[in-house]
Amino acid sequence: MENNFESNEIIDRLPAHLKQFIKPQNYEEYTAINQAVWRYVMRKNVEYLSKVAHSSYLDGLRQTGISIDHIPNMYGMNRILKEIGWAAVAVDGFIPPAAFMEFQAYNVLVIASDIRQLEHIEYTPAPDIIHEGAGHAPIIANPEYAEYLRRFGEIGCKAISSAKDYEIYEAIRHLSIIKEAEDTPEEEIAAAEKKVDELQNDLRDQSEMAQIRNLHWWTVEYGLIGTLENPKIYGAGLLSSIGESAWCMTDKVKKIPYTIEAAKQDFDITKPQPQLFVTPDFAHLSSVLEEFANRMALRVGGLEGLKKLINSKNIGSIELSTGLQVSGNFTRVIEHEGKPVFFQTTGKTALASREKELVGHGTENHPDGFGSPVGRLKGINLAIEDMSPRDLRAYDIYEGEKITFEFEGGVVVKGEIITGTRNLQGKIILISLKDCTVTYGDEVLFKPEWGKFDMAVGKEVISAFAGPADWHSFDMITHTPSSTTIKSKKTPEREELESLYESVRNIREGKNTKFSLEAAFDILKKHHQKDWLLSVEIFELAYEKDEKLAHEVLEHLEKVKSERPEVAHLIDGGVNLVKSDYVAG
């Protein structure tokens, strides 16, 4: 893991398993073409979004100090974001959804530091600094929305995934990388799109993570706010797309009131969205989020929660009514009358209370798994956890006593009590036994020769969630992406074009340059006939200062439009922006 990035107090709080995703921004790698792409998108966005974006966006641009003329430097952003209690880190493209959300829970904005190519200036499926820096960052200056984002991260990172979710993440990451890369064969893109479609169209048993990702998409990424008749944009995906921000305001995009039903609505990152959800205000977002959280295993627990963890095939945790937390790969649950009566993990397991590992119960103490009955004892109205010291003595639940625990679901534990572990409230949360046998009918679940048996105490499973209760219990620094972003190739032609962009940029900023606008334009016409953005920049500088050059540039742009009709609207947009800026000035 590269770790030569600049930190601060907020980033310092991040656990190691999140820091593994952070990479240096390497600001010097941005070319003058990259800067021109940022500038074009931001100028177009600010002009258009001033009419259609939620007022928090433009306020946030000012408050976060994000420049229209320069790609934001992460260090500069962090100095300003710190004032609103947030920070930003650079990452490489898509990262796993759970990690992305957990960063939000720590008030850290994840920014994919690469920037889209000129060929994808209107929209890219790959996360980039335009999407993150110009889309997400400004809107979090709104305190109510920022708290929604933090809370979303806090709840979302506990959502239980399925094995299919990770397949979808890898497929989308791969597709976004090859679509943004130059010279990718069309058949390779088509195959990757087909795989994403097949995975996303398989709607069987949507996991919690799949559903909460849908909520994230339809709010944080593609949300509208206000009324159905007059909505405003607040979603970062729309705020950072000069094409889709205009498209979404037309009648061709269906507007739907935002409710929890959005959790069932899947999305396709490769196409414009056919419908969008409109929230009346930011408070409503939090209301729907809490409604969804109330249905999650995080708050429901029970048999359903355990089954979700088993299906996830990932490290997860349950919490019992005593507060005891068990973390590991859950592989089995025995049920009785709709309730779990025994659970089992396989492989490294850790026990915790209040997100802190219990001394003597880390993965080194439970390297091969952990199993325990759960529920009430048969024929006894009082649960073990609710027994007073006098009750415990009366039922022989006492150190040194040989005892038989017969649970309502049919699990029987026989052995000699060694000791009990209590929580801060004095409730017994764990009973350790020796010479212990655990049975369920004719099946032996634990044998005396296996050593000490630690029996979890709890009348019910009150919570089940993704990830370990205490992140220190497991080695979570294991993420290795299947693919990394592909950098543009450096050809002599490309380097010359970058040099021309640099020269024009220097002229705009009043720096010494060996090129005049006329010389730069002359080389551009001769050797880079397909490029259009630099001509627009030259036109901007020549307009009202060099009428002859401005006219020549317009003639050239007309030629480019006829040869490349797919960029004609971008050229017109840039030229009209120059003219409107002059009129406004």
Sheet with the most strands, sense and barrel status: 6 strands, antiparallel
* Beta-strand percentage range: 15-25%
* Count of β-strands: 17
Structural class: alpha+beta
Using the alpha-carbon principal axes, give the shape: elongated
Number of helices: 22
The low-confidence parts are none
- What is the overall pLDDT average? 89
Q: Taking Cα atoms only, what radius of gyration do you get, to the nearest Å?
A: 29 Å
| Termini separation | 49 Å
How would you explain this protein's 3D organization?
The protein has 585 residues and is an alpha+beta fold. It contains 22 helices and 17 strands. The protein has helices at 9-12, 16-19, 32-52, 55-64, 74-81, 97-105, 129-139, 143-156, 163-180, 186-201, 208-221, 236-239, 244-247, 282-293, 297-300, 302-312, 389-394, 492-508, 517-527, 533-542, 547-563, 568-584; strands at residues 87-91, 108-112, 224-226, 231-233, 254-257, 275-279, 316-320, 324-336, 339-353, 356-357, 371-373, 402-406, 411-422, 428-440, 443-446, 453-456, 461-466. α6 (97-105) packs across α8 (143-156), α18 packs antiparallel against α19 and α18 (492-508) runs parallel beside α20 (533-542). The chain is elongated and about 100 Å long. It starts with 8 loop residues before the first helix and ends with a helix. The model has no long low-confidence stretch (mean pLDDT 89).
